[in-house]
Amino acid sequence: MSQALLAGLARTTAPRTMLRRFLALDAVVTGVNGIAYTAASGPLGRLLGVDSTLLLGLGLFLLGYGAAVGLLASRPAPPGPAVRAVVDANLLWAVLSIAALALWLEPTTVGAVWTVLQALTVAGFAVLQWSSLKTAEGVSR
Which of 40, 63, 65, 113 has the most CB atoms lying inside 10 A of its own CB? Predict the structure, then answer.
């Protein structure tokens, strides 16, 4: 991904700030999903056609994960290995979401669309984070 595109999306040309902003956005989106899945697992489960207990567990996981990513985003220079772990976790989440949809989930139409959209969003975060990390590492050498 080009540095100009990253800078436009992050609204900054400072590579570390780009990285921190993409991590922070991930943390916010993840945290909001975690709150929704935890607080409304029953109604969301019915809407999406997914077991409410599964949503509750995912919500609790997302709350913790979002907090960890937020903590990483708050660092002036997020360490590369930790950012790579977030990128890997995001890619794994995206792949598992599609696999679950294909192999064992039987969601409603809304649930199927939601699963694909959130997988694409999480994969997009991984691409933005990886690209901005590579840009930041190139500048710091």
Answer: 65
Q: For the chain, first and last CA: distance in Å?
A: 19
70 in Cβ contact with 99 (< 8 Å): no
pLDDT in tens, 18-65: 899 999 999 999 999 999 999 999 999 999 999 999 999 999 999 999
Please choose, from the candidates 67, 58, 36, 38, the residue with its C-alpha nearest in 3D space to the C-alpha of residue 105.
Answer: 58
DSSP-derived 3-state class of residue 35? helix
| Angle at 71 (CA atoms; ends 136, 75), nearest 5 degrees | 40
Q: What is the pTM of this model?
A: 0.88
Residue 70: band (very low, low, confident or very high) from pLDDT cuts 50, 70, 90: very high
The answer to whether the beta carbons of residues 9 and 128 sit under 8 Å apart is: yes
Express as a percent the part of the chain with pLDDT over 90. Answer: 82
CB atoms within 10 A of CB 59: 19
